[in-house]
Amino acid sequence: MLKCLILAVIILSASVSFAQSDSVSKSLDIVNSFHTEAEVLTKGLVSPSFQGQFAGERDEAVNELDSLSWTEKPGKRRFNLAYGIVDSYTEKIIESIEKLLPQAPPKSREALNNAVERLSALKTVAMRELNESLKAEAYEQERSKPVPLIDRSPFEAPPEEAPGMWFR
Question: Rounded to an integer, what is the distance from CA 152 to the centroid of its chain?
């Protein structure tokens, strides 16, 4: 059952990732899938209040990413901010599970250790995928020639060819 759920999450995230190209939507997808994975791996091993902490962290990251999509234009800066949010969120979740390891009973400790390893591997893959979204988002726009401040008569020579104002 657990393997089927994990496989479904991976397939769903892979199929959705083809439709997403910018870093914010990709980051939102990563945060949501990471949260789902953390809940599944720790279900029954941690208290419901601890899983509520996971949900709070996820909601905070999602709110930051949503505001980022409205406040920053696509580009390297927005990518770096989204990357930082996702990295700190995933690191917080992994560290909070690692803090439980010394207090957990031996049976739960093994399962929590496996959860930490699985989440670390998932984080590595997710961050690599997020790096790929930078290529689609950070493109250089061609700069057009600036428009002159004053209109010139079509019969006048351009300023660089004109002999000067004393020769008119």
Answer: 49
Question: Under CATH, to which class is 21-136 assigned?
Answer: mainly alpha
Question: Contact 119/90 with Cβ under 8 angstroms?
Answer: yes
pLDDT tens column, 50-108: 778 888 889 999 999 999 888 888 888 888 899 999 999 999 999 988 888 888 788 88
Backbone phi and psi for residue 143, each to the nearest 5 degrees, phi listed first:
-90, 130
Spell out the residues 6+ positions from residue 16 whose beta carbon is closer than 8 angstroms to its own. Answer: 29
For 86, list phi and psi in degrees, rounded to 5.
Answer: -65, -40
Q: In this structure, what token pair is assigned to residue 82? A: 């989204």
CA distance 27 to 133: 9
* Predicted TM-score (pTM) of this structure: 0.68
Summary mean pLDDT of the chain: 78
Phi then psi for residue 109, to 5 deg, are: -60, -40
Nearest-angstrom CA–CA distance, 31 and 60: 10
CA atoms within 13 A on the CB side of 125: 14
- What residues does each domain of the chain span? 21-136
Alpha helices in the chain (DSSP H): 2-17, 23-42, 48-71, 76-100, 106-137
Would you state the structure tokens that stand for residue 72, as one six-digit string? 């920053």
